[in-house]
Amino acid sequence: MTELSDLYNDRIMAFAAAIPPSRHLDTPDAKASAHSKLCGSTIAVELKLEGDRVVDYAHTVKACLLGQAAASIVATQIIGSTEREIRKAAEEMRAMLKENGPAPTGKWADLGVLEPVREVKGRHASTLLAFEAVLRAFEGLNASRTAEATAAQA
User: Fold this and answer.
1) Would you say residue 149 lies in a domain?
2) Model confidence, pTM
3) Is 96 helix (H, G, I), strand (E, B) or coil?
4) Is residue 85 part of a domain?
5) How far apart are CA 85 and CA 89, in angstroms?
6) Count: domains in the chain
7) pLDDT digits (tens, 9 = 90+) for 8-36
8) Within 13 A of 90's CA, how many CA atoms are on the CB side?
């Protein structure tokens, strides 16, 4: 069983403390938010893209320590990432928490610090919230691109 000292260890607290400040982008290409009904955490994100790569990122985070730590890691790793790379990291994170999978690797390896959350199911949603918001932003962007392409063909 996970102890509180495992869940709120020094590394998790350090990531939460290092979270980039809230801000907004002047002209985001995509934005979305995600909310956890269980704990009340909310994360709103804005993305700026060049081609398929994220070149700027902003967020507003009102979350618990675990949500803040995850959002901090996402914020520091997302620049330069493609939607595909972000989806892969999100899938690995979800699998780590919900399916006893390995921690994400490569540039997203810091997410492994959140592995103790695996045993506390009630904290999964807040820990995945940053990814949920980012993926919603991509889904909204993709939907608007599809609508624009359809309108252009009409």
Assistant:
1) no
2) 0.91
3) helix
4) yes
5) 6
6) 1
7) 889 999 999 999 999 999 999 999 999 98
8) 20
